[in-house]
Amino acid sequence: MPVYLDTSALAKWYLNEAGSDDFAAWIRRQDDVHISSLTAVEMRCLLARRKRAGDISPDIEQQAFATFMEDVQRGYVCQHPLSDEHAMTAIRLIDQLPQYALRTLDAMHLAIARSIGAEAIATADHIMAEAAISLEMDVIRFD
Question: Is the pTM value of this prediction over 0.90?
Fold first, then answer.
């Protein structure tokens, strides 16, 4: 089953945080996981934000991102490019799901997941999880 990884879940593979052990056990059993180039930008931002907050050292920031990029290059996750169609689909999703306070990047991730035919999304984001459920996607939560 193709699974799209939201950055909130994927970060648990590269940083030791709540839910990391559960994510590690789960990801080791997966063989069809997908991200987008948006995930790479978001991961870089997440790591920089954690460094600025003093949660991680500059060395951990650099090592975590280098490991992430190496994993992408080795094909451990399938990375999909962004397209204008993803932005248009995200706009439609925001209109279609007014009951959820979807943020820009969450709507983009959902649009990409749908466009690649992902049947499930792995996330630690409650709003994204609820929106994905309403789109009849399976959700693997890592709270």
Answer: yes
